[in-house]
Amino acid sequence: MIEEKILKRVLKPGRYTGGEFGQIIKDKAKVKARFAFCFPDTYEIGMSNLGIRILYGALNAHEDIWCERAYAPWIDMEEEMRKGDIPLWAVESGDPLKEFDIVGFTLQYELCYTNVLNVLELAKIPLLASERTDSDPIIIGGGPCSYNPEPVADFFDLFSIGEGEEALCEITRLYIQMKEEGSYTRAAFLREAARMDGFYVPSLYEVRYNEDGTIASHEPKYEDVPRRVVKRIMKDMDESYFPENFVMPYIETVHDRIMLEVYRGCIRGCRFCQAGMVYRPIREKTPDRLNEQAKCLFRNTGYDEISLSSLSISDYTQIGCLTDKLLEWTDDSMVSLSLPSMRLDSFTHELMEKISGVRSSTLTFAPEAGTQRLRDAINKNVTEADLLQALDVAFDYGKNTVKLYFMLGLPTETDEDIEGIAQLAKRVIDYYYERPGKRKGKAPSVTISVACFIPKPDTAFQWEAQCTLEELDRKQQLLKEKITDRRIRYNYHDANVSRLEAVFARGDRKLSGALLEARRRGVRFDSWDEFFNYDIWMEIFDTVGIDPAFYANRTFGEDEVLPWDVIDCGVDKAFFKRERAQAYASIPTPNCKEKCSGCGANRLGGERSWCRDCPSSLAK
Q: Which run of H or E residues covers position 382?
């Protein structure tokens, strides 16, 4: 364990001590495989991640597997570790990560890549997979970014593609089996892993490039290695593992509440949204199962808030039944319900009544675009009328602060669309005063938060070029000029950050050289404003001979081999091409509840899913 004198010299020592209520400790003598789950950011963020909580419990449900946790140390602790030559450890046992059999990283965000390399270096594990020996841990990556693992392919032994509750247990059992049989070598293990469903082993594929830098081919080196790796899903969410207890932090975390996963997937099909595609098919849990899980977690944690987690909670087909069941006991227990990710077109008085106990005067919605034409182009499928109806509900319940999310730089966007953002925000203010019988009290305010469009893999806009920095700056300033009401607050994202994210979102293996150079220069915590340095990144790209515009600001060809084509997210590329054409015609696509559009995700199966009985020929 870390020495007390060091803990006294760093901020928030509770990040490093372990010992929390609910942590799992096992007898090493009875353990056959040790798995360290590492979140490549601070403890407060990692402890708020529901996925890690689920996988931590699923692995530890096996008596002979011990899964522990590790997090990226903050700058002050890193300094102490380097000064004292202290290798990074797991918080349960205090043992160095290099002593574990498997180390897993969840890749939630492209700007965590430099943290992954920093963690490996601090753990004294070779950064490059090609330099690891049989005595080093197997390094596994997973999470949303694994749908394009190529920028970090050189640093990982394998990737778990899709949902990991069963997959990670299976890969760990393979490790145990080969160790017990005496057949384990790193190479043999990875060859066997590549034959398992849902595992991508980058070293077993050869990538060739054309003279213009695009990919010529991405081929497996052996006949028994699949050409494309199909993601894994949990087909029956009621039977999917969900923890009966949470590890309870000693310090404040980002999300300090019960998070109840209601369903996976999304019926909406926004054309910019990666999550809405890669988490298909839509699979729901039943209200009875969810109510049982909520009660169990309340008894075991004592949290006084339950957040219903999904991409769009109001699209849950039994939301009324679920909230009724929860309210039968949460009111008496003084537990409030939180329903994030509400859509404008399904925000009702009934739902507002059920979440009225949440102590906030702010409601958040995401129109994403300022005009109906552009909302149709991106397939947002909400109207100004939907917004006004939602405002009626919000204002009736005394909510006077509204936050609206938008994007700049979307494909087909014009200056008129940008001006429409300011006009829509002003419409919210005006509507408050137009309503008959309006309540007296504090004047309304609107905050608009505007992100920059980032083309993401596995979306209809995966081929699109991101606007240049100069154009994004022009658009941001245009919107600023059009906002004249002091009751409207305008926040916008740093376009430099968005550009770097686009580079790594659509990057290939050549970016590994940039990441290694970034590690040499001490770059980490790129997602933190105080550490992000765009100029250093431009110097890095120049040093290794990479043009970031090749990845961020170039329109990819529809017939071009994409870096992520080796991964099958379950949605067919033909569907994305059709959706791209619909976007340029500003034609929306009905949601899955209204009509099947043949995305292909039904071929993966799934209980209680809109996709299950999809008639699409693509599923055959």
A: none
The model carries a pTM of 0.95
Strands 205-209 and 215-220: antiparallel
Provide the token pair at 534: 């765009």
- Residues 479 and 445: their CA atoms lie apart, in Å, by 18
d(CA 353, CA 372): 29
Same fold, 4-230 and 257-357+590-620: no
Domain extent listing, the chain? 4-230, 257-357+590-620, 360-493
Give the CATH fold of the 4-230 domain: Rossmann fold (3.40.50)
Q: How many CB atoms lie within 10 A of CB 462?
A: 23
User: If one looks up domain 360-493 in CATH, what number appears?
Assistant: 3.30.750.200
Q: Which CATH number is 257-357+590-620 given?
A: 3.30.750.210
| H or E stretch at 176 | helix 167-181
What is the total residue count of the chain? 620
Cα gap 283→316, rounded to integer Å: 10
CB 601 within 8 A of CB 571: yes
Alpha helices by DSSP H, listed for 195-336, are 275-278, 287-301, 319-330
In which residue are the tokens 């393979």 written? 174
What tens digit of pLDDT does each residue of 410-422 get?
999 999 999 999 9
Contacts of 368 (CB under 8 A, 6+ apart): 270, 272, 375, 378, 380, 405, 406, 407, 410
125-132 long-range contacts (CB < 8 A, ≥24 apart) are 125/97, 125/98, 127/155, 127/516, 127/519, 128/154, 128/155, 129/154, 129/155, 129/156, 129/157, 129/202, 129/203, 130/154, 130/203, 132/157, 132/186
Q: What is the pLDDT of residues 413-468, one digit of tens each?
A: 999 999 999 999 999 999 998 888 666 667 789 999 999 999 999 999 999 999 99
